[in-house]
Amino acid sequence: MSVFLFVFTCIVVIFAGGSIHYIRQLGYAGSYPPKHILKQKALVCAVGAGVSLSVLLLTLFLL
Q1: Is 53 strand, coil or helix?
Q2: What pLDDT is attached to residue 24?
Q3: Could you tell me if 52 and 12 are in contact, meaning their C-beta atoms sit under 8 angstroms apart?
Q4: Which of 4, 3, 2 is nearest to 52 (CA)?
Q5: At what angle do helices 35-62 and 2-26 cross, to 10 degrees?
Q6: What confidence tens digit (pLDDT) does each residue in 32-57 have?
Q7: CB-based contacts of 42, cutoff 8 Å, min separation 6
Q8: Alpha-carbon Rg of the chain, whole angstroms?
Q9: How high is the pLDDT of residue 37?
């Protein structure tokens, strides 16, 4: 069970870090990749982190 919690914790950290990375890239003046692509990537990472965190918390509360 602890391996499951460790894996989902790592997934949350990776997705949250990716979301922060893409949001920071939005502030730069570069034109590649386009801003709408960066927004989509940040949104996907944020949703992935949210879903993973929800599964993690649901698992912790049900035990």
Answers
A1: helix
A2: 93
A3: yes
A4: 4
A5: 160
A6: 888 999 999 999 999 999 999 999 99
A7: 18, 19, 22, 23, 26
A8: 14
A9: 93
* Residue written as token pair 């870090």: 17
Largest CA distance in the chain: 48
42-60 burial: b if 16+ Cβ within 10 Å, else e: beebbebbeebbeebeeee
Single-letter amino acid code for the residue at 6:
F
Query: CA 35 to CA 20: how far, in whole Å?
Result: 15
Instruction: Judge whether 2 and 63 are in contact, CB under 8 Å.
Output: no
What pLDDT band is residue 4 in, cutting at 50, 70 and 90? confident
Find the mean pLDDT for residues 9-17: 94
Residue that is written with structure tokens 């790592």 in the block: 10
